[in-house]
Design a protein that fits this description.
single chain, alpha+beta, four-stranded antiparallel sheet, two-stranded antiparallel sheet, 2 helices, about 45% strand, globular
């Protein structure tokens, strides 16, 4: 395994649009796929959601994680965890 550079991480985020959001809900971890847009000008991840349990849970506990993978095969893959 090799650590990718900041530039490679940014490129991976910019070239993809599906990631996984991890958050705590009712004292357990939830991990769900979401669509997103990477804004390179602000170095930000943008996504949207309607009001519901996911938004309520993240308002109660704002500690979240976000992961994007790019998998070519079992031996060639990249992953960014924010």
């Amino acid at each position: 395994m090799k650590t990718i550079t900041s530039t490679e991480s940014t490129q991976l985020l910019a070239e993809n649009f599906i990631g996984r959001l991890g958050y705590i809900s009712k004292e357990r971890v939830e991990i769900i796929p979401i669509t997103y847009y990477f804004d390179p000008d602000h170095n930000s991840i943008l996504s949207y959601s309607g009001q519901g349990s996911k938004i309520d849970a993240m308002r109660k506990n704002p500690l979240v994680s976000f992961q994007v993978d790019e998998i070519t095969n079992l031996e060639k893959w990249k992953s960014v965890l924010l």
